[in-house]
Amino acid sequence: MIIPILAIVIGILILIWSANRFVDGSSALAHHFGMPPLLIGMVIVGFGTSSPEMIVSVQSALQGSPGIALGNAYGSNITNIALILGLTAIISPITVKSRILRNELPLLSLVTILSAWVVYDGQITRWESVLLLALFFLLMGWSVKQGMSKNPDALAVETEESLAGAHLKPKKALWWMLFGLVLLIGSARLLVWGAVDIAHTLGVDDLIIGLTIVAVGTSLPELASSLAAIRKNEHDIALGNVLGSNLFNTLAVVGLAGSIHPMEVGREIFTRDMVVMGTLTLSLFVIGYRFPYGKGRINRFEGILLLSAYIGYTTYLISGLM
């Protein structure tokens, strides 16, 4: 039991460190070759912080542990909104100035509804997984189009200011990107092995392990990025990390895992986890959008509500093991 616990702890620590190196290297390399800051913020930083979720879920699917794969993806979405944005807003209320992020809020809500439809029948087939991946690539195309736009946007300004402080030469940036990716894969294998071993030893459903320990562990890069952004008063980057990550998790992570290994889905995923994820996503849309064109704002009270929802949800999951 001690060795699997150490495997999880060490795996998470290396996962966080390697994810940061991977994102830093990728961003610096893209910036060096002239990629627009908005595109770097939306694609590389936004989706890059979800690389741990992707690697862990793919590894879980390859090892025949769909519970960890799904729990990791959906649990990370819940963690991102309730824990990360909740904590961030408590520290400093988040003002949503970016037009693009306001467009992503209803898009994330629609993607969440699609996810509920996919899991409703108790399985995720290979064709449904391909559909999720196809939608992800369409979203990537939209992101590229937005990123290449010449229209000024708050997210582009904040990303450019953030990149101005990075001074990685191209060779070093390439090294960090590749080295970070290798460590990501290795640490993900370690984390999945430890999580599966503990689940089997304790007789706990691996879905619960995926929703709690694994989801929090793989979401720590988003937490670190959002807290760092809020300290620099880069509110749109803090929110962009979460929105990009949740879109990536829901479409690419689940789509990849399901393409590798079609999954049986327990009813509780739809009636419990999808309800929580959908409610949180809808609440984020309501408080972050502010109809019709005003600046959305997540204040401290709303942050406390989000954090309370996370504590309540996690307590409910753990209480079911008693």
Keywords for this entry:
mainly alpha; 3% strand; 82% helix; globular; two-stranded antiparallel ribbon; 322 residues; A middle domain of Talin 1; 12 helices
Tell me what the structure shows.
The protein has 322 residues and is mainly α. The chain has a single domain, classed as NCX, central ion-binding region (A middle domain of Talin 1), CATH 1.20.1420.30. 82% of the residues lie in helices and 3% in strands. The protein contains twelve helices and four strands; from the N terminus they run ααααβαβαααααβαβα. It has helices at 2-32, 37-48, 51-62, 66-91, 99-120, 126-148, 154-164, 170-202, 206-231, 235-260, 267-289, 300-319, and strands at residues 94-96, 123-124, 263-264, 296-298. The strands form two sheets. A two-stranded antiparallel ribbon has the order 1-4. Helix 1 (2-32) crosses helix 9, helix 3 (51-62) crosses helix 8 (170-202) and helix 6 (126-148) runs antiparallel to helix 10. It starts with a helix and ends with a helix. The model has no long low-confidence stretch (mean pLDDT 81).
Radius of gyration: 18 Å
Architecture per CATH nomenclature, i.e. the level-2 architecture: Up-down Bundle
Can you tell me the CATH superfamily?
Answer: NCX, central ion-binding region
How many strand units?
Answer: 4
Question: Can you write the helix and strand succession as a string?
Answer: HHHHEHEHHHHHEHEH
Structural class: mainly alpha
* Poorly predicted segments: none
What is the percentage of strand-forming residues? under 5%
Sheet having the most strands: 2 strands, antiparallel
Total domain modules: 1
CATH C-level label:
Mainly Alpha
Tally of helical segments:
12
CATH topology: A middle domain of Talin 1
The dominant shape is globular
Strand order of the largest sheet: 1-4
Q: Which percent bin holds the helix content?
A: over 70%
Q: What number is the mean pLDDT?
A: 81
Quaternary structure: single chain
The rounded distance between the terminal residues' Cα atoms is: 19 Å
